[in-house]
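Final report, results section. Input specification for complex C-07:
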Amino acid sequence: MAETTAHRNPAIRTVNLRRTFATPAGQIAAVDGVDITVDDGEFVCLLGPSGCGKTTVLRMLAGLEEPSDGQIFVHGENVTFRSTADRSVRMMFQDFALFPHMTVAQNVLFGLSIRRMREKVSKTDAVKRAANYLAMVGLSDYHDRRPHQLSGGQRQRVALARALATDPPIVLFDESLSALDAGLRRQMQSELRRLQRDLGKTFVFVTHDQNEAMTMSDRIAIMHKGKIAQYGTPSEIYDHPNSVYVANFMGTTNLLRGRVERVERGDLAIRTSTGEIFVSPGDGAVGDEVTVMFRADGARLRLTAERSANNSVDTVVTNIAFLGPRIEYELTANDGTQIQVHTPATEGRRFLPGSPVSVAVPSEALRVLHH
Amino acid sequence: MSAEAAVPGIRERSTIRRNARLRHSTVAVAWLGLPVAWVLVFILAPYLVNIYFSLGSSEDYAFNPGFSLANYQRIVTVQPYASVLINSTRIGALTALIACLIGYPVALTTAFGLESSRSRFVVQLLIMLPWWASYLVKAYAWRTILGSKGLINSSLIHLGIITKPLGFLLYNEFSVVLTLTYIFTPLATLSILNQLERIPVSLIEAASNFGATRLEVFTRIVLPISLPGVLTGAIITFALSFGDFIAPALLGGSHSLMISSVILAQLGVANDRAMAAAIAMLIVAVAFLLIILMKRLERSSAIQV
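Structure output:
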């Protein structure tokens, strides 16, 4: 019965969630009307730059901050005004929030040892469970250590074991991996993803790192100034950004501003400062001010002499960076526009700084963004 | 070494560096010399002189040099020294206990009840405000309040509640403990507050996120982490009250209640310089032991998140 309810109702649903703060300059909306639905067993990342409101959304979901307006539903239940202690939502804090006066085992046991859990789980079961979760994160030999005797990665694992030991249906992560170095971070990303799938839990993860979001998420919500700019799967957001903001946030992006000149059977001819660009099929009307976008890895470089007639921009190579699997070119068009193109290193031809090359963009790599 | 010798010039350069280091160390010695001299002349030398006196004896109001621990033995075994020692310990411990009991709730509400760091700062200033007045003045003030014609007695008589002044208010252990508590509670409060403010908010949020009630958050997180601060505050309060002289002298009555008053009696009345020195060294030793204990606590209480 519980399972069917969980299926019918999303794990989390917010309705017009708002949070305003009083500042000397007046009321500032940190979160300005967020509607988001997270399905049961889904891994969702809230992605955005610092100050976009993502952490405030998370803290409101955890019940650590009260919304100024709007509602929060967890598995269909309105929990908007419930205290954090009364929600089945665990929070992983950015600083891990391990209790310094307790051992690793005592920390993991904490959630199970508080009064309301003692009634549900016996002492021996709790100890067994804590040991299981410590083993799951690979810290079986660290029961009696204190948090300050652990490395950053180990503390992260203890915090994770502590959060999971109470078997919560939903776990929230506040920039949880940002304190770790790059290698450990990638390892934890795939581990978190695996754990989430194996345990069938709902994870909501706040991050400002687009790669992290792309690696782990089922869906990404990109936040901008307290609002959700776009919500979709990583490929939807990467391939079909709905705004210049989102396009810029994900990956290396080239943006050319222009104006629609002609529309023929759904194809657009757009006049930009670097020349005319044809988008097929494209959405728009004659006279629209638009931005034409293409990814750095969506374009090809050709010798100027070989260029095809359509959608190519004459440029000069200004900088090259060899990154192993790929080469990153910085190019300057005749009118001064900077263009970034990444080509696979396996591609035979390489260009030197100063060479005149033409950037050819296949029609399917182009997107038209309206203002 | 051999590589160094093989290349001419390297050795010269290292000699220059060594000379530079030498000059540096001369300056360092000069700088260190001042505080070292200060410690020798004003701290170590008086202690040594005092220890010298404490090992001698006094006969017919004259000091005889000697080398015996007899004075120390007398403190512990002979009355009234032993009972005064116990008195001092009891009064110090009582003061420390009451100061922490009063200071803890004040520190707790300051640390977690006040949102802005500015209001916390203002409260800390208010806590320390009495310390800007002279200790002597404050002790006299208590005498005025507690005396037979003092504020409390005259008010009660005026109101017709009592007809004769209450005698138990002044010149006894009660008035001494009351005054010492009044004087030293701010120190205990600040020591506790300092430790409470080091607790990251995320610890409290994490505990309540796990379903802990407010009481559980306090008993399982806040109290254990703040305990070293409480103990430090208690030790400071104890050490200062144990060796206090003014409160027992002004509010303790005619009998020698505490150990510091006994030193004065030894010097001024009995003229037993040796015994006075031995008692003084005992107070120093107690304070020294307590400071070591406090350092230990400080090291173990560092919150590393």
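Residues 119 and 203 of chain B are 22 Å apart (CA to CA). Chain B has a mean pLDDT of 87. This concludes the modelling results for the funded period.
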